[in-house]
Amino acid sequence: MSPLKRKKLSKIRSELDNLDNTLINIIKKRTNLVKKVLKLKDKKNQIVDQSRIRKILKNIKRKSIKNNIDPKITNRIWKNMIYAYIDYEKRNFKKK
Predict the structure, then answer these.
(1) Which of 10, 82, 88, 95 is the most exposed place for a label (fewest CB within 10 A)?
(2) Distance between CA atoms of 81 and 94, rounded to whole angstroms?
(3) Same-domain pairing of 48 and 18
(4) pLDDT tens per residue, range 30-52
(5) Are residues 29 and 49 in the same domain?
(6) Residues 6 or more apart in contact with residue 2 via CB below 8 angstroms
(7) Are residues 62 and 30 in the same domain?
């Protein structure tokens, strides 16, 4: 790799690192909202809502296409995030 390309790569990676920091803050906010939602659930079987999951994924696909983003990428990201939060909710569910 040429020195010029190495310098460009370093700059892009720095931008990615900054974006990752922003994403961490967004994930923290999302986690706080999920905690609030979890407090409202009375039964553990209320954690997974398949119709809501389908609606979210359909919406993300539409927005991805509209924004010229490969919907396979966003689908995988959102599915992983959804199921990570489902796991989080199951681990943190407190019976009332």
Answers:
(1) 95
(2) 22
(3) no
(4) 999 999 999 999 999 999 999 99
(5) no
(6) none
(7) no
pTM attached to this predicted model: 0.88
Report the C-alpha gap between 23 and 29 in whole angstroms: 10
How far apart are the C-alpha atoms of 94 and 96, rounded to whole Å?
6
Show the tokens assigned to 17.
């690192």
How would DSSP label each residue in 8-74? HHHHHHHHHHHHHHHHHHHHHHHHHHHHHHHHH--SGGGS--HHHHHHHHHHHHHHHHHTT--HHHH
CA 33, 35, 40, 42 dihedral sign is positive
> How much is the average pLDDT of 59-86?
98
Domain count, the chain: 2
